[in-house]
């Protein structure tokens, strides 16, 4: 167990509505909730609520549009022959179009396709996607990573409203002064499970919303506490896994809503 201010210590898919619902203000907020709210404000705040966001990720085109609790998430894939698959996830469920024609999605594939669309939008739009009544946010303490001090906030999701992967666990390192997310770690249980640690890089502000890319690392020791991953990263004990790069970002804000 770490001390609160010790300086040197040795993901998945969430609820779709986590992208769009507001925090529950009916009860007094925890310290973790307050920090997440400040992080959301520092990264775009109310601009998220009426934004249409387009971007490219791994040669696939994505678009999200929201208005209050209404949402629409899209993914457009073009294969080498020019055929297109267009998936749309909204309050009404999942729709798929192939070359502009409605396609029937087998029940066995609905969750897999929906999770695939949602997961990309989820990580691109952090920390706003943590603005969910199903999210439990706990301040674990503070720590120093690469010379900067961060709050460590653990996020889990309740089963009710928490999505298909509500068992997944997250820790976010949120800068103590500017409240931006510098690092995150998560434990997932699908496909035999795993642990990832991401460092945010290439921060830029587009349409008054902050976006980042990530350096993605992993450990094969699945018993590792998520809070220890920052120290393992600094010690060079994590394995580089991939670059997570979001390209061609375009943001439109509907100020009439």
Given as residue ranges, the uncertain stretches (5+ residues, pLDDT < 50) are: 1-26
Shape: globular
Main sheet: which strands, in order across?
Answer: 6-5-4-3-2-1-14
Helix content: 10-25%
Q: How many separate domains make up the residues?
A: 1
Q: List the total number of helices.
A: 3
Radius of gyration: 18 Å
Topology:
Elements lengths: L30 H13 L7 E7 L2 E8 L2 E9 L5 E7 L2 E6 L2 E3 L3 H18 L10 E11 L2 E10 L11 E7 L5 E8 L5 E13 L2 E10 L10 H6 L4 E6 L2 E7 L4
Antiparallel strand pairs: 1-2, 1-14, 2-3, 3-4, 4-5, 5-6, 7-8, 8-9, 9-10, 10-11, 11-12, 12-13
Organism: Antarcticibacterium flavum
Keywords: Signal
Protein name: Deoxyribose-phosphate aldolase
Question: What do you see in this structure?
Answer:
This protein is mostly beta strands. The protein has a single domain (16-253), classed as outer membrane lipoprotein receptor (LolB), chain A. The protein is built from three helices and 14 strands. The chain has helices spanning 31-43, 107-124, 229-234; strands at 51-57, 60-67, 70-78, 84-90, 93-98, 101-103, 135-145, 148-157, 169-175, 181-188, 194-206, 209-218, 239-244, 247-253. The strands form two sheets. A seven-stranded antiparallel beta sheet has the order 6-5-4-3-2-1-14, with helices on one face. It has a seven-stranded antiparallel beta sheet with strand order 7-8-9-10-11-12-13. Strand 2 and strand 3 (70-78) form a beta hairpin. The protein is globular and about 50 Å long. It starts with 30 loop residues before the first helix and ends with a strand. This is Deoxyribose-phosphate aldolase. Residues 1-22 form the signal peptide. Keywords: Signal.
